[in-house]
Amino acid sequence: MKINKVIILLGCVALAVAVFAGEALAVRGPQGVANTSHNLSTSGNIAPSNNEDEICVFCHTPHGSSTDGPLWNRNNSSVVYTHYTSSTLSTFVASTRTANVNPESMLCLSCHDGSISMYTVINPTNDVGQPTPAVGDGTMRDGFLNIQGPKIGQGRNPDGTVNPVSNDLSDDHPISFKYQAVHDDTTKNNAARLHTIAEAEAAGVRFLPENAPDADKRVECSSCHDPHVDYGIFTGDPNYKPFLITPNTGSALCLACHIK
């Protein structure tokens, strides 16, 4: 009887974790993180660790996790970011130029802004301790990764060269803003520029929180990306490159929001 109760309890815990994870980041696209550049373990092919063979530990832990994300095993960056803006952008987004990034996108930036090593985790495995990189210092700024283009958070100098700062999002798609407020901005006639939330969601875009009222739904990194998508570095579907939640063939993902 006690064994059955334990099994039931563990099942409930697993279900709760699955529900929480689903709320934080619903699954989109062909899953297979082991085959992607997000596999930082010794079995990874892009930026492997030289001592840790577990794949999930670089982001998740079953015990002692942070509440910032689903069983999250990383500390968030303390960087204050400069967001994208332009003269034609909604005044609502322009006002958030130096606003904080919301929690969902901070999960991504805990690696991708280059301020924290990708191999530094809150709760390392008992038999290994903190993972260490096979090459370099383990940050996205180190330049050893075989990934095209500047790392997120790195800006461009006037001459086009990369400026390796970790707080500049001004050359990246805006994030952490409420889509409905931008859509309804009459000063920019945005209703003629942007699809409604319902139309964008039907085309595959994910606004966060997913179950929030439309007025509270935001654009975040995971509105377009899923970190577990196998997009064809070694296997998988190249139509989902890079970590897209739905293919962007013919700019379909862009046009899910933008009317062009």
Question: Which helices and strands, and how do they pair?
Answer:
Elements: H1 2-24, E1 82-83, H2 91-94, H3 103-112, E2 155-156, E3 162-163, E4 168-169, E5 177-178, H4 179-183, H5 197-202, E6 218-219, H6 252-255
Parallel strand pairs: 1-4
Antiparallel strand pairs: 2-3, 5-6
Protein name: Doubled CXXCH domain-containing protein
Keywords: Signal
InterPro entries: Multihaem_cyt_sf
Write structural notes for this entry.
- This is Doubled CXXCH domain-containing protein.
- The protein is mainly alpha-helical.
- The protein has one domain.
- The chain is 20% helix and 5% strand.
- The protein contains six helices and six strands; from the N terminus they run αβααββββααβα.
- The strands form three sheets. A two-stranded parallel sheet has the order 1-4. A two-stranded antiparallel sheet has the order 2-3. Strands 5-6 form a two-stranded antiparallel sheet.
- A hairpin with a 5-residue loop joins strand 2 (155-156) and strand 3.
- The model is unreliable at 1-24 and 143-150 (pLDDT under 50).
